[in-house]
Amino acid sequence: MEITASEDRDVVIVGGGICGLATALALHRKGIRSLVLERSGDFRIEGAGIGILTNGWRALDQLGVGSKLRQTSIRLHGVRDIWLESGKQRQSPLSRGESRFLKRSDLIKTLADEIPPATIRFGCHIRSVEMDTLTSYPILQLHDGSTLRAKVLIGCDGAHSVVAEFLELKPKKIFATNAVRGFTYCPNGHGYASEFVRMRTRQALLGRIPVNDKLVGWFLVQQAGYPHADTEIAKDPELIRQQTLKRIMGCPAEMIELVKNCDLSSLSLTHLRYRAPWDILQGRFREGTITVAGDAMHVMGPFLGQGGSAGIEDAIVLARCLAPKLKEYDSVVSGKEMMVQKVLAEALDEYLKERRMRLFWLSTQTYLTGSLLDTSSLLAKLIILVLMAVLFRDPTWHTKYDCGNL
Ligand SMILES: Cc1cc2nc3c(=O)[nH]c(=O)nc-3n(C[C@H](O)[C@H](O)[C@H](O)COP(=O)(O)OP(=O)(O)OC[C@H]3O[C@@H](n4cnc5c(N)ncnc54)[C@H](O)[C@@H]3O)c2cc1C
Questions:
Q1: Which is deepest, 29, 72, 213, 367, by most CB within 10 Å?
Q2: Structural domains for the chain
Q3: pLDDT of residue 330 exceeding 80
Q4: What CA–CA distance (Å, rounded) separates 64 from 313?
Q5: Cα-to-centroid distance, 15 and ligand 1 (Å)
């Protein structure tokens, strides 16, 4: 669809990833129309699979897509940790709660299918965001030179967010580790139990998780090589596979086979970025009627498998806070614009107030877990372990969170 030179919209969402689509769907369920602007020509699906834990399922149920998604993946019943150097193993049942590993494409497609057609505009790359000095509403500058005015702007544009840049959020940081992710399809069935297996060495974490009887997701979190070399490798799936096979030499043969036989198109190599917990605590996540959600606000390492679910929670809370106010002032007369802006800004503050501490603790736990992998100093490892034991006596606390009804 062509964009006119200048256009006005009520709610504009930048980014059609998990969080942008979940936000559009949450608003739609509340009777609010929005426009999602996605820079890619189609849905951008990177990273093969995504783990969704109990809190994420609660949020997906609120969006009305939980039961459809449950049909795409098996329920996981346990976690097995294996320390490859010592051969030690620990099994923990997942008797309470719900954990599944989904194909990202299933999640994205299911969310998108529930949103009214024409909500998503592909090929719309937002170059920058400004505040209209006359109206104090946001103006988006697109790469094709056109502009778009919004009453509310929600930046769901991921780790390199232009909306976060407008809000002058502190730059995100990078862990010294990177992650390779992929799928392997086993036509005759993989025969694995419905468990999440994590194999640990001193410098790496290797894992596999079944999606269904024939599809297995796997990952390798490892000390990054030279960033430049990583960037070159990331563009070539065959190089990613070769590099991964080199890195897992000596690991169990079944893992080597999984990597050898992987679906090349599913492979990705990603640097692990995060917004520091203290920046989450202090960040100014709103200006006027502009805010952020998902990775744009709180990109975190994948160590708890919560980044995506946290973005879906954001969507529920944001829609719950915003929708009643938008409805109330739907047919506003021009003289009351300032009052409308004040009320919408208050709704966004309510959203941020509800989310901030949840995101602070999530990012603190992921930061500490990531730092444990990053550091080779025994003293630093000891300090981190003590901190984690004190702060997170129940390490699975984050799965018990309930973001509430939509
Ligand atoms: C290795 C790894 C493993 C992970 N595992 C899990 C897991 O198991 N469970 C879990 O819950 N989370 C996991 N995560 C985190 C999860 O992937 C992210 O939190 C989630 O994908 C973020 O979604 P998002 O929509 O906020 O951002 P993104 O997925 O980055 O989407 C942003 C979208 O915005 C678009 N965009 C960006 N800039 C612009 C622009 N200027 N104009 C227009 N469009 C733009 C992009 O094209 C993209 O489509 C993992 C992350 C990594 C790196």
A1: 367
A2: 6-74+101-172+275-400 (3.50.50.60), 175-273 (3.30.9.30)
A3: no
A4: 13
A5: 9
